[in-house]
């Protein structure tokens, strides 16, 4: 059965080891594209992209473990994230999909391709490298709960601008959809040298680099593209969150690549 196009995505969930994994399915008759968000975010960060790519592409965007409407997991290991993505594709009966990932999701994307090459036909990697050394400990200073949404936003200060999707009302007040300590644990497992995974596949790949990024340097991005076959490098004048800072430019860049597949 071919999913019909929708104005709004359908939120659904599957159960893995007793744990809820929530995802958004934007539907439509197009080819499937799995979109994996970064730390602090969730699947709906790709709403604008999904609309821009419709109806040619059906975007499925999970809330990865410990994020959004998905449950926390026993661990935040590399294997755990990759296995979740593979399980979601199996649940939906999909394979040979294009996998797009930002930051954390970008590493998950190219490691999914490395460990389950039959599931991935192409990659779109947004502003993350093959060598990573990130520190998210600053998020431990964020408030746990606040009496109102306004109070929470005020306490978050400048950080609130990239946490809008994660703000939630809980039984004991307003807070975030994730636990900051989980994010620190998660990025600790992302840090390291992942060149072997990046170079282990040769499916078509697009590496999108924000030229003002504090996460991926221009030199590292160029090296990643040069060392991996069939890899294109696109540079946009943004910071780390290219898809949010320049949604139109990002969507155009991604669509141009997808049209070559």
Can you walk me through this structure?
The strands form three sheets. The chain has an eight-stranded mixed sheet, sandwiched between helices. It has a two-stranded antiparallel ribbon with strand order 7-10. The protein has 261 residues and is of the alpha/beta class. The longest helix is centred in the first third of the chain and has 15 residues, at 78-92. The model is unreliable at 1-5 (pLDDT under 50). It has one domain: Rossmann fold. It is built from nine helices and twelve strands.
Summarize the structure.
With 261 residues, this protein is α/β, with parallel strands linked by helices.
Topology:
Elements: E1 5-16, E2 19-27, E3 31-36, H1 47-53, E4 57-62, H2 78-92, E5 97-102, H3 104-115, E6 120-126, E7 131-132, H4 149-156, E8 167-170, E9 173-176, H5 180-190, E10 192-193, H6 195-199, E11 205-210, H7 218-227, E12 231-236, H8 242-245, H9 247-258
Parallel strand pairs: 3-4, 3-5, 5-6, 6-11, 11-12
Antiparallel strand pairs: 1-2, 2-4, 7-10, 8-9
Helix pairs in contact: 1-9, 2-3
């Amino acid at each position: 059965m071919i999913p019909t196009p929708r104005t709004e995505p359908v939120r659904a969930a599957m159960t893995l080891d007793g744990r809820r994994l929530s995802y958004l399915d934007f539907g439509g008759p197009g080819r499937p594209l799995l979109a994996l968000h970064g730390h602090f975010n969730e699947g709906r960060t790709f709403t604008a992209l999904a609309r821009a790519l419709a109806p040619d592409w059906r975007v499925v965007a999970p809330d990865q473990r410990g994020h959004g409407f998905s449950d926390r997991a026993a661990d935040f290991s590399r294997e755990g994230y990759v296995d979740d993505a593979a399980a979601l594709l199996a649940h939906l009966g999909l394979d040979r999909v294009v996998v797009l990932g930002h930051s954390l999701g970008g590493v998950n994307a190219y490691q999914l391709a490395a460990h389950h090459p039959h599931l991935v036909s192409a990659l779109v990697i947004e502003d993350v490298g093959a060598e990573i050394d990130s520190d998210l400990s600053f998020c431990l200073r964020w408030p746990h709960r606040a009496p109102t949404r306004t109070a929470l936003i005020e306490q978050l200060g400048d950080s609130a601008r990239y946490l809008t999707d994660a703000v939630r009302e809980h039984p004991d007040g307003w807070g975030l959809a994730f636990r900051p300590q989980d994010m620190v644990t998660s990025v600790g497992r992302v840090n390291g040298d992942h060149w072997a995974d990046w170079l282990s596949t040769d499916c078509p790949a697009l590496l999108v680099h924000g030229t003002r990024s504090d996460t991926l340097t221009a030199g590292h991005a160029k090296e990643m593209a040069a060392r991996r076959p069939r890899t294109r490098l696109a540079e946009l004048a943004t910071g780390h969150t290219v898809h949010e800072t320049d949604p139109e430019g990002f969507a155009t860049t991604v669509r141009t690549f997808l049209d070559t597949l």
